[in-house]
Amino acid sequence: MNINAILISILAVFVLAIIDVFSKTLVATIPTFEIIFFRQSGAAILLGSIMLLMRKKPILTKSLHLHIIRACLVATTIGMLIYALSEMPLVLVTAISLTAPIMVAVLSIFFLGEKPTPKLAIVISAGVMGALVLSITQVDLNWGK
């Protein structure tokens, strides 16, 4: 396994955690749309600058419509995440976001034609149960009141 890739993955997760903390802090004073706008604009400026500095050719694609759809989905996801951060504790939003690999595993069966196996079913079930335990401990369900 490539140790650099592992370290970069860990760094990426750390940076995402920092972004979530900043987003949670900002939603108290700035509207969600503005956070999304500046986050995406900053990313575009950063990536454009890197491309210019590296003297890379413009990105050309035969599937522009798929990239546009993906960009819209990313913006929608960020909007929903920031809204969730404005309404729920950071720990709960993070616990729910940890279900993403479970969702990928399930969706890969339908969209990528991967074969479901008993091992996959056990792993998905354990992941869902873990997410439920984390989520339920963070939510006041007002049971018995």
Please give a structural write-up.
The chain is an all-alpha fold and 145 residues long. It folds into 2 domains: 1-87, no CATH class; 89-145, no CATH class. Helices cover 77% and strands 0% of the residues. The chain is built from 6 helices and no strands. It has helices at 3-26, 32-53, 64-87, 90-97, 100-111, 118-138. α4 runs antiparallel to α6. The model has no long low-confidence stretch (mean pLDDT 85).
Helix count?
6
pLDDT average, as an integer?
Answer: 85
Report the sheet with the most strands, covering strand number, pairing sense and barrel closure.
Answer: none
Element order, helices and strands?
A: HHHHHH
Low-confidence stretches: none
What portion of residues belong to β-strands? under 5%
SS content category: mainly alpha
What is the overall silhouette? globular
Roughly how many Å apart are the termini? 53 Å
Total count of strands: 0
Rounded to the nearest angstrom, the radius of gyration is: 19 Å
Quickly count the domains. 2
> Can you give the helix content as a percent range?
over 70%
